[in-house]
Amino acid sequence: MKELLEILREALRSGESVQIEGLGVFHPDRNGPRFLPETQPRVFLAYAFEDLARIRRLARALRAGGCAPWLDKERLIPGQNWPRAIERAIQTADAFLACFSPRSVGKKGQFQSELRYALDCARRLPLDQIFLIPARLEPCEVPPAIAEQVQYVDLFPDWNAGVRKILRAIPKRPQVVLATKKSPI
What is the SS3 assignment for 98? Predict the structure, then answer.
């Protein structure tokens, strides 16, 4: 913890802002550091690689709707332990958007792993809390274990109507109010 505080102090002294994922951003200020909490709901996007073009479009729509989508192609950095980063992103997400297509449903691999992990995370939440949001990119079967318990949304034939439904389902983040006090950092 001491080392983290020293890194934060040094970055702020040198005029750099420091972002702590899921928390917010510390900005240098002549009156002491200024903290801006993250207020946008974080949405993890799970998909098959073959659907990436539509997922990028969906990420743009979510950003425009006031969300912070987590897309592996944008968030993972070289050398990062990507399985751990993905698990952490799912754990800290406000919503997990599972994007189903004939490719994601029938393919073994990362999408299935992320979906199973999200189901485990959802089991720890209150039953009426929305976390897993299944969305069909095109006609395909949603796995019965999900379709029997969770309502899904179709992004076809009306993409915009589907996106609006997704945005309504995403839990809003509570607003953080910070007392104004000179920080010891």
Answer: strand
pLDDT tens per residue, range 89-102: 999 999 999 999 99
In the chain, alpha helices (H)? 2-13, 52-64, 72-75, 82-92, 102-106, 110-123, 144-147, 159-169
Hey, where are the domains in the chain? Answer: 2-37, 42-169
- pLDDT tens-digit readout, 136-149: 999 999 999 999 99
**What class has domain 42-169?**
alpha beta
At residue 177, the pLDDT reads 55
Phi-psi region of 103 (alpha: psi -120 to 50; beta: other; left: phi over 0): alpha
